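Allow me, if you will, to draw on your knowledge of protein folds for a short while. I have a record of one protein: its chain in single-letter code and its fold written as C-alpha cells. The full record is reproduced below for your convenience:
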Amino acid sequence: MKRKNNNKKRVKNYNESILTILKENKNISFNHKQIASKLGVNDASSRNQIIKNLHKLAAQKQIEEIDRGKFKIIISTEYFIGKVDMASRGNAYVMSDNFEEDIFISSNNRCKALHGDTVELYIYKRKQNGKLQGEITKIIKRERSEYVGIVQMNSNYAFVVPDSNKMPVDVFIPLSKTLKAENGDKVLVQLQEWPDKAECPNGVIKKILGKPGEHNTEIHSILAEYGLPYEFPPEVEEFANNINTSITKEEILKRRDMRNTLTFTIDPKDAKDFDDALSFKELSNGNYEIGIHIADVSHYLHEGTVLDDEAYKRATSVYLVDRVVPMLPEVLSNNACSLRPNEEKLTFSAVFEINNQAIIQNEWFGRTVTYSDARFAYEEAQHIIETELCNIPKDISITNKSYETTSLIKRAVIKLNELSRIMRKKRMKAGAISFDKVEVKFDLDKISNPIGVFFKTSKDANKLIEEFMLLANKKVAEFIGKQSPQKTFIYRTHDEPNNEKLQNLQRIVSQFGHQLNFENKITTTNSLNTLLKNVKGTKEQNLVDTLTIRCMSKAEYSTKNIGHYGLAFNYYSHFTSPIRRYPDVIAHRLLQHYLDGNKTTNDVIYEEKCKHSSNMETLATKAERDSIKYMQVKYMQNHKEDKFLGVISGVTEWGMYVEIIENKCEGMIRIRDIKGDFYKFDTEQYALMGDRTKTKYQLGDQVEVQVKKADLLKRHLDFVLS
C-alpha cells in the first residue's frame, strides 16, 4: 500500500508582503508579475499564490483593482495622532484619543517609531477578529533619544544593547563615538540618525556609567534610564554658590517679623532639607495662632537664571534608597533655604487663628522672617505625644543623648496633635480616603549594601505634620481659587476613580471576604476606608493597599481645578515643599503676584509648566521604585538558602507573583517551575489550576518560597516553591 505523503511544501501567504509593497508605493499600481519580481520569486506556485492573495485582499477592501489585474492600496484619507506602546517582537500598539481600543501596528508598519513616541497613523483595515490595525506614517515627536545599555565591541564598530525591553533594536556606534568604552561596559547612548534602509539607528555614547552590577553603576543607570541627572552642571553650581544668602535689615522690614513666636520643625531623623516649620501661640481669647512656615525659595530662585532653568528642568528631587538627587544645589537646599534650628530664615507663611474645635477664625498669607527654636525627629515628637513628658530618651534622640525640651514646646506639640486629630476626623467624614501604606526602608552599611529591611509606618507625629501641611495647601488654593474674576493658579488635582478598576478591585477583595458599595461617592469612599481599615495587620494588607491605590486616578498638576478626590478637597495646591518641588515655587510666585494686587497671568504658559512637572514627577517615582527593586534583589542575593513565607500578589498566564511577608520583596514563580502537575491560568478566579490534582494557587494565598535567581541587572527575582 502506497503511503500518503504528508510532507507537502507549505504554500506561503504573501498578504503582508503585498501590503508592504503597495503601501510603500501608494500611487503606483502593480500586477502579480511585478509583485513576484519585487519579492524575488518566479516559480508557478508562488505566482499563483500571489494572484490568490491579491484577489483576497481586494475582497477585504484593503486594496483595489483599478484595471484588469492591476492593484493599488486603498488609502485612508483620515489620519490620527497617538502614542506608541511597544509590544513583543517589534510589534506595537498606538493609543489614540480617537478610539476606545488600542490600534495594532505590525513591526513592518512601525515606521521606526519607538516606545512613547507621538506619531501620525492611519487605520487601513479592520482585522477579521474585529481589532483595529494601522500604519504609522510619521513620527511627530520622539519620546526620548537616550538609552542605557551594554556595549558590544567589534574590531571596526560597536553596538549598544539597550536594557529596556521596550527598545526593540540595538544601536550602531562608530568606533570614533564610543568614548573608548570597553566591551561589556554599561553606557548611556544617544540616538542620532536612522538611515532609511538601516535596521537599527546610529548613535553616540554620551557617558560610560561603569561595570554592570557595581552599585554606583546601577544607581546611575536607573537615573539615566529616565533622563534624570545625578549632578549639577558646573555653571549652575557656580551660580548658586555666588548667591547672596545673607538676611538684610531692609529685607526684614518688608516682611512680617515672627522671630519671637515659638517655632520648631518635625522631620525624619536623617533629613537635611527642612522645608517647613510650625509656630504656636496661645491667644488671650482662648484661640491659637498657628503658623505654617515654608522656606522662601522664590526669594533666591529668580526666573530667567541658569539656576531656575535647571530647577524647572528637574522639577522635583528624586529620593532613591541610598541618596537624594536634589532639585536645588546644596547651598540652597541644605543651607540657605533649610529651616535649621537656632537660625533666622526667610519664609513664606500661612498663619491661622484656630479655636479648640479646629475651626479657622482668621487667616493670613505672606512673606515672613522666622527663627526656629528647636528641631525634632518624628520619633521625638511621638514620644512627647505619647508620654506628655519633656524628657527625650537617648535611644530616640537626634543628639544621641537624652535631653529636656521646654514645657512650652511640649504644650505646643500636644495641642497641635489634638487639633490635627480633629481636622483629620473632619476630613475623613467629608469623604477623604485613608491611605496608610507601609513604606519599605533598608538598613545600609557604609558602602550602601542592604543589611536589613524595616517598615516605616505613619504615627500621630507624622499625621500632625501632614494635617497642617494639608491645611496650608488647601487654604492657599481656596484663597486664589475663590477670587473673582478667576485667576490662573497651579492646582494639585485628583479625579474620581475609574469604575472598571473599582469593579476589578471588588472581584479580587471578595475572595478575602470583603464587600464594597459603589452606589455613590459617599458609599464608595466609606467602603474603601472600611476595607483599608479591616485589612490592617492581615496577610493581604499590602496587596489590598496596592490594588486600591491602583484604582485611583493619578494626581496631577493643572491650572484647571477639578478638586482632589482622595483628600475630599474642592481646592488643593502644593505650597509646602518648594525646596524639593518646582510646582510649590510656582505657587509661591503666583500667590505673591496676587497679594501685590496684580492681574491674572497667562494660563496656557502655566498649563505647560503643570504638564512638565507632572511628567517629571512620574519619572522620579519610577526611578524611586526601580531603586527599591534593585535593593530588594541585592538583599535577597544573600538569602538564597533561606525559606520565606509569602503571599500571592499577582497571577498571570505565565506564572504568579509572590510578596514575602517579612520584607515585602516580590518575585515571580514561573508556571514551568511549579512541579507535580500541569497548571493553567483561570481568569475568573485569578488562580493557577492544576489539571490533574485540581490544586489551586489563588491571589492572596500564602506559600513558602526560596530564591531561584536574583538578577541585579534586570532587577528581577525568580522564586520557586519550597
Summary: Confidence is low (pLDDT under 50) at residues 1-10.
